[in-house]
Design goal:
Helices cover 46% and strands 17% of the residues. With 238 residues, it is an alpha+beta fold. The longest helix has 27 residues. The model has no long low-confidence stretch (mean pLDDT 91).
Length: 238
Amino acid sequence: PSWGADAFLLLNADVEVEPEAIPCLLACLEAHPDVGVVGPQLCSPDGTVQPSRRRFPTPGTLFWESTLLEEWFPGNPWARRYRMQDRPDTVEQEVDWLVGACLLVRAEAAAQAGRLDEGYFLYFEELEWLRRIRRAGWRVVYLPSARVIHYGGRSTEQVPRERHLHFQRSKVRYARTAFGPAVAGLLRFFLLATHAWKLLVEGGKFLLGHRRAMRKERMRVYAALLRDGLREVRPSGG
């Protein structure tokens, strides 16, 4: 596709850009012609740095990160490696991919990789896209001297069931794209089984009278996911 510019900015609606951030990102692209994507440091409104650097997930990562296993074993090595917690977030560095709240993308790199996959309604779309950009030979750089304020998911906070369902669907879709149908099928079974367990646990706590409003909402989320079955939804008109 033709983008009509040398570079373009992908920006979430819940981001506030500090004045020097965009000039810093542009300077990085201009100074390094092999960089296809550069992203800033994401900060919460209170100044806390949000983890935005990532390595590409392995099949094991998909089972150990943001799942029941991570709840049981927080700080497990798969999740830590995936989030690059072994490297400081205060220095410029090459990464596999970045959280897509704010990304400056070289048009040539985007043209070689193709457009974002519309099969991802929410989540994992920037991972899959930056994987293609990296495969085309471009570098992805994290630039902490550029800072933006990320308010974090405000557009989806009001629909927890939909948000959770889209996250898990997208995880299975990425597993199929990156690792094949066998891994995707095993991951889908694992996610359905662990959510069935979580539904039973929340139901028990609800019956015991513990924070019933919260338990009821969680039960609705998990039941909706089980009814859906994490079946892949094809984009219309594609």
